[in-house]
Amino acid sequence: MRGGRARGLVALALVLLAVAAVVYLAWRAARPRPVPVAPKAVAVVREVAARFRCGPARVTSETTRDSTGPLVLVTVHAPRGFQAERFVLDLEAAAHNLGGRLEPMPLLEKGGYGLARLDGEVGGVRWRVLVLGEAPPAPPKPAVGRRAVRGARLAIVLDDAGSSIEVVREVERLPIEVAVAVLPNAARSAEVARGLGAQGRELLLHMPMEPVGNRGPGPGEGAVEVGLSAAEIMSRVERALAVVAGARGVNNHMGSRATADAAAMRAVMAVLRSRGLYFLDSRTTAESVAEQIARASGVPALRRDVFLDDVSEPEAIRRALDQAVARARADGSAVAIGHVHPITIEVLERELPRIGGEVRLVRPSQLLKPAG
Description:
The chain is α/β, with parallel strands linked by helices. It has helices at residues 2-30, 41-50, 84-97, 145-150, 166-171, 189-198, 230-243, 262-275, 290-296, 314-331, 342-355, and strands spanning 59-65, 70-77, 101-104, 114-122, 125-132, 153-161, 179-182, 203-209, 249-254, 278-281, 301-303, 306-307, 333-339, 360-362.
């Protein structure tokens, strides 16, 4: 009798313990858990950039979005001598240590300006990191009154034409003021130049020039290279102009090394001066002396203010176009450079009518001031 009662009490105790365990586990599951705080992207990037003598003022951050959704865009404005490859490796490791992942991605504008791009997710937040080879842009000056806004002018140049004749048909969808720069060493350069010229469109020779050494593709045959004689550089520019017949001006393809070399630029400008052409400095390096040498040589010159399609995605191109508009409204004029990429052309076809009330689209030559 006593044994049966004892066994019953034990069984009851076990049941109560089981019920208590279930209740406890249910309570733990329902209890609010602390949400892990996502690391601030700009702080992480600044910490890594500081190892490479890149100060915090050169690392900027903003929230934006792409076709997938919102993301944090961090831009590193790399100083001279910045070790981009080592920076990428260190930043990948930092993201990994935070339980995330960043992966290198392609950039459209290379040759010394676009040094690196990484995309990924850290702490549940999407990051994009761009490393650009130029100083942070100065804040635009406030536009003064409606007259300054009405008078703002924007020139757009699309680079890298020459590989396919299809670009002639594609570009025809854009306003005639949009200029095109044609490579002289592509498969169908001369034919493309003739087709674009027949539209009445302003042409530039997209002159290949030597970049700072990198592992990517070079500028191709016939490029302006540091160390060549002045006579050889002039001969190469003359041969290139013969291919891109009808060019009104010249801008550099790549050229982060060549445009920083005064002797090479003097040889280039000697040809342009003799032919009455202008020079547009694409500014693939902050060390460029091309604009300075052009003016000193009596060659009318412009400089690029905004690259439109470093990241070849519609939202990124649209935002870059808005930056170019803001620069034009603040300074009176601006030059934006993109590429004859289908996405870039599609975005411009859609967005240029939208900005028509804010700036006047003009040919690059309409922004020229007298040299000197």
